[in-house]
Structure formats: C-alpha cells, structure tokens
Structure of ECF subfamily RNA polymerase sigma-24 factor:
Amino acid sequence: MKGEPEAYTQLMSQYRGMALAVAYNRLGDTFWAEDVVQEAFTEAFGNLSKLEDSEAFPGWFKVIVERQCYRWLRRKQHTMIPVQGLEHVFHEEDQSHNPEEQAVQNEMHRTLRDSIAILPSSMRIAVELFYLDGYSLKEISDFLGVKVPALKKRLFDARSKLKRSMPVRDLVSVFSDLYEGGKGLLHIMNGDHAANRLRESGIEGDILVWRELYTFGPVAKNMGDVKERKNRASVLERELGIPQKEYLQIEELERKLHSFQQYKEIVLWFEYDLYDQTMLSYLLHYFKGQALQNTKLNLLCIDSYPEIEHFRGLGQLTSTQIERLSGSWHVIDTDELQAGAQFWEAYTSSDIRHHLDYLQADTSALPFANAAFKAHLSRLPSVSNGLGVIEQTTLETIKAGVERPYPLFQEVGNKLHILGMGDLEYWAHLKRMTEGPYALLQLTGATIFPNFRQHDEKFGDAVLSLTELGIQVLSGEADWALLKQDEFWIGGLHNERGEQAKWRWNPASETVNEIEST
C-alpha cells in the first residue's frame, strides 16, 4: 500500500462495511457513521506511509475509526444513543410481494431489528458484520482484533439470545430470507451419519451426500469421462466388492450437482483429512469451471470441535453440536476455488512432477490442504523398505500386540487420522498384505476379508500375525515394493503389475525420491 488511487479504492471497498458497523455501534446514527467513516478514510490515506506492516492495517484503521467517533461526539456534545434502527443494512423490499407477504416481512424485519439492537455490543457488531455485511470470520478477526474462536462463540451466543426473542428454529434461514430474498439452500457433505445429524438439527436446506472414495483406485482430472469412470468402476468392484452398477450411480449425484443453479446458496461441509480434502478439492475444481451466477458458495471445514477431545469428523457430533455450527461457514472466494482446483489437478496427475510442485506451492487458501497432500504421498512405498505409511503402521501395530482386525483398524486409524481412512478401504489394504508369495501378514481364523458384498462372522475373532518376510521388511532387511511389484494407485500415480515402483516417499525429508531401476 503506497497511496496509489487504486489502493485507496481497494481499501474502501474492503473495509467500508466494517468501519460503518464500528461507527454505527459507537454513534447509533447512520448518517453520522457515514461522515465519520469518510473522515477516517481521509486520515488513514494521509498516514499510510507511517504504517510499516500492511497486515496491521485492519486493527490500525479500526483505531482511527473509533478516534474519529470520539471526536465527532465531542463536537456534537452528544452521548451514545440507543440503536433506533438497522435500515442501512436492509435491502430494498421486493415490490413483487403481495400485501400479506409484505406485512409478514415487515413484521419480521421489525422483530429482528429490535432483537439485534438489544444484543450486547460485542455480539451485535459480530452479527452485523458476519450475517448482514457478509464478511468472513478471518476478515472480522483482523479488523476487530478478536480471535476467530472468540468470534464463533459470540455468534453462537448471539444466535441463542435471538432465538429466545424470535419464534423460529433456524435463525440463519431468517437472515437469508430477509436479506437475500429467500434462498434455496443446498448442503453438500460426506457421510450419511453426519447428514442425518444435520437433518435432525433443524438447519434448513436440502442435503446431498457425496458418496465417493477418491483416496482409493484410479482417479482422473475429469471424473465424468465415460472411459475413466468405467475403469474406476471395474477396479472398485474387484478390490472393494462395490458392484459396478452401484458405483455408476455416482452419475445421479453428478446430475444433481450440475443443477446447482436452482439453489441460491450452497454450503460445503468437510473436514481436514485426505478423504475429505480430495472430495472438497474435486467440488471446488468443478465449481471453478462453472458460471455461478446468483448462487453463493460457502465452506465449513474444520479440524476440531470444542467438546470433542479427539476430533475425527462431523459424524462424531450430535444434532445439537451440528446446529451450533450453523452460520459459521464463510463465503468461498476465488483464491479458494483456485486452490481447490490446483489440489485436484495435482492429485489426479499421472506426472510425479505435478505432485512435487504442489508440495512447494502456496496452499494457505486451504489451510488443511498441504498436510493432506503430504499424507497422500506418504502412501507411496518408502525409501527404506518399500512400505507405504499404511503398511508400515499396520506391521508396527501388530508387532506391538494388536492382532485382531477391528482393534487394529481403530488403532491404525487413530495413528493415521490425517488419511480419514474407512474400514472398507483398510480391509482392502490388509487383504493385499496377505496375498501372494510376498505376503507380509497371515490371517488365522477367517478365510475372507469383509468388503461391500461379503462378511465373514468369524473375521472379528481372527488373528493377524507377521510372516517371516513381514518381520524382515519391517526391520529394513528386505524391500517389499521391489519384491511384490503389483498394481496400485496413489491418486493419479499408477504402478502397473510387474513394474518396479520408481518413486519412493522419504519420511525424513517429507518429499519423494527417484529410485534407479535395477
């Protein structure tokens, strides 16, 4: 920020709404607030050269706004007056409403306006900036100097107070109806259990459960390609037991996704792990290529929840806990769309260079992406013994005494929670480790591993033990990938049967090394 006119315009566009909210909170008058904010911008522009750190601008400018408010009050010899209305944040009424609808809207406006006005000032300004002005939690945090978790708590407390004064269940839908003309809302998320909790929470909107497993089997940049889809369906049937006809129902999900423009607002609900980050990146890649028109995209992506000690996913939450997340999503910006597309294109690439380039890219727009992508590459055979992180952790856990399948899955899943691996996928990995002349494990007490179509009741009581080769590989005396040379996929990277794995993961440097052919 050097004082150029275009910089002034950008700053005014970005911070005017926040400044007005702060000024109005101090002065209680729309017109006074407008004048004060204009004076504050004038003062800020005149002193930009004194600001050494541009990232400190939000808090610095807030101080200027508040100082201008105090000056204005001294000049006018006024004290703070009660809030008399929030009409400045309302859109014009839709004149197409019939008189009855208009009367209901007016009454709801009045009730909401009066209810917001009596909130404590810290809650009131958070509600105005987040719900009415549409700022993200990060933007509000920077401007007010309040940490994001504290803002979430203020919004939750504000919603609780407003519910007691308004006869509605889903307060977020009220904001949507009043200020955005009544939007159809679509929630896209992973997992039927979490979707059921969302339905029970009373949060308004349709729900689309995205049933895919991009962490297993072949994937491609264009998952809608007929040839790619049929190839994937064939592999998933062979490895996971998912009937091709069942998998190809993904086309119905795609059709629903393609009709997204019938909704005026979409919320993507996802988590931090690789399983979810691949789904999120696929959807962001898709939406980046679409004309969104009047549809607003939102994102809720978390890696923790206050009441959950070891957070693994939204499926852990009760309907009440899900409801508390209502409205804590933020509007997806172009940087996030671009970052999602970048993740997906790298993840599905058959060229290792694209994967390596992504590790060095700026992924800050999606805070969980880099860790998830490293977890993705850690599934490659390692430089030390040819085991991927799943096989390595499994052998270590069995050696430590966890020998039965279900406790083993739980233990490995907890250690590798960054993968977000489900049981169906894990049983396929275990099965691969017990097969062929280079088996690492022996299964005793059962004859088959569970998959989508079959289950052996004896499986839960079965015992897994390391073979002699498993012991040698775990100690670094043998290289499993060099011996086995079977077919597998790691994202878009495909190792064909009989081919030596050329690329190896180096856990120490968290990068990939090339192995010379022998």
